[in-house]
Specification:
CATH class: Alpha Beta
Largest sheet: 7 strands, mixed
Order of helices and strands: EEEHEEHEHEEEEHEHHEEHEEH
CATH architecture: 4-Layer Sandwich
Helix content: 25-40%
Structural class: alpha+beta
InterPro entries: ArgJ-like_dom_sf, Peptidase_S58_DmpA
Low-confidence stretches: none
Organism: Caballeronia cordobensis
CATH superfamily: L-amino peptidase D-ALA esterase/amidase
Keywords: Aminopeptidase, Hydrolase, Protease
Number of domains: 1
Family: Belongs to the peptidase S58 family.
Distance between the termini: 29 Å
GO molecular function, one term: aminopeptidase activity
Number of helices: 8
CATH topology: L-amino peptidase D-ALA esterase/amidase
Radius of gyration: 19 Å
Length: 324
């Protein structure tokens, strides 16, 4: 079960894994067309704002995506945003001239423990490669933007999950994809069990300095205001894994729907019947559960990785084996 269970959503990675360079780019496409011309309703929720994303201000104002969503490391945000702009211009040469500019959307986490971010290894070709690789079938774990990420002081990265929400006589799919790079080991909770305390009896005095990006896709007909309400429920799924949204953690959630698009050059936008707010609870539950299990998927899917200056992150599976 992944975010691509929502029909039309695809994911692609470009992974850099050599010595001190352990990083990459991940791209999420909400549909197979031109997102600039057929914009997707979306909204974001900033749970803790220790982050360096691009594009959130306009997203908050207009409530639509204009490009695919890109994930990378902190120092790669500007480069990837430029790559998104170039790709949009290549498909729409009137952008920034006869037509308005485009709003790139890039999220980041700091992979500096395993990856030498000062090397500025991400270039625009890596975004293009991840975009070209987009598919309904994609790898999870230590791949793409998740290559150098840590989660609960173990190996983190890309995880995904999905749920079905039933409202009245209709069923809707809700899927999540996370870039998991947060948490202290003693905090880790899996299905209600304090697994982290089994792996580490004492707590560290060092503060949390991670982040998590949580993306939620649904085919339920919602407007951007309702999508922000769905995005907020990502925090419930995050908390179930033991996170307390530490001071140095950038925790951001975004939700979008594939139920309809807003045509760029249309005078009017035709909306399907939207779900009554009073009937949204099944979607809230699906969002929380899919985020929680996407985080666990990232932990279970990742392998042990060694990187910069001999730093190493054990996978959850290897940590549990070592403990037994």
């Amino acid at each position: 079960m992944t975010i691509s269970d929502v029909a039309g959503v695809t994911v692609g990675h470009c992974t850099l894994a050599q010595g001190a360079i352990q990083t990459g780019v991940t791209v999420i496409r909400p549909h197979g067309g031109d997102v600039y011309r057929d914009k997707v309703p979306a909204a974001a929720c900033v749970i803790n704002g220790f982050g360096k994303s691009v594009g959130l201000v306009q997203l908050d104002e207009l409530g639509v995506l204009e490009t695919p969503i890109a994930l990378t490391n902190t120092f790669g945000v500007g480069t990837v945003a430029n790559a998104q702009i170039r790709a949009a211009i290549a498909a729409n040469p009137r952008i920034g001239r006869e037509e308005p500019s485009v709003n790139p959307l890039v999220f980041e986490c700091n992979d500096g423990y395993l990856n030498d971010m000062q090397a500025l290894a991400i270039d625009e070709a890596h975004y293009a490669s991840a975009l070209d690789a987009c598919s309904a079938h994609f790898a999870r774990g230590a791949v793409g933007a998740g290559r150098g990420m840590s989660c609960f002081e173990l190996k983190g990265g890309i995880g995904s999950a999905s749920r079905i929400a039933r409202i009245g006589e209709q069923s809707f799919t809700t899927g999540a994809l996370v870039l998991a790079n947060f948490g202290k080991l003693h905090q880790l909770v899996i299905e209600g069990e304090a697994v982290g305390r089994r792996l580490q009896a004492s707590t560290h005095a060092t503060p949390e300095q991670g982040s998590i990006i949580m993306l939620i896709a649904t085919d339920a007909p919602l407007d951007s205001r309702q999508l922000r309400r769905v995005a907020m429920r990502a925090a419930a799924g995050l908390a179930r894994t033991g996170s307390v949204y530490g001071h140095g953690s950038g925790d951001i959630a975004l939700a979008f729907t594939t139920a309809y698009t807003a045509r760029h050059d249309a005078d009017f936008i035709a909306l399907p019947p939207l779900i009554n707010d009073a009937r949204l609870d099944p979607l809230f539950q699906a969002a929380a559960e899919s985020v929680e299990h996407a985080i666990l998927d990232a932990l279970h899917s990742a392998e042990t990785v060694a990187g910069r200056d001999g730093h190493r992150r054990l996978s959850l599976n290897d940590a549990l084996k070592a403990r037994s």
